[in-house]
Specification:
With 73 residues, the chain is mostly beta strands. It is 0% helix and 37% strand.
């Protein structure tokens, strides 16, 4: 069975008209709307902004957040 984990919508600061879903790794606390995160995007790593939680759960093929950049509230 594939792992199921919390996912969030992330806006990437590029001229795109969509947001992207990323998994929150187990043990990574504090990921919520307004925080900056480091995420894989294509062949590079970019800073994104968390917009909020996704409805529903996604499975193992969803890319995960690499790092939470804003630790304080």
């Amino acid at each position: 069975m594939e792992p199921v984990f919390k996912t969030v919508e992330v806006a990437i600061p590029l001229p795109l008209e969509q947001t992207f879903s990323y998994g929150v790794p187990s043990g990574m606390a504090g990921v919520c709307a307004g925080k900056r995160v480091l995420v894989p995007f294509g062949r590079r790593t970019v800073t994104g902004f968390v917009l909020g939680e996704c409805s529903g759960s996604f499975r193992g093929d969803t890319k995960e957040i690499i790092e939470l950049l804003d630790r304080e509230a």
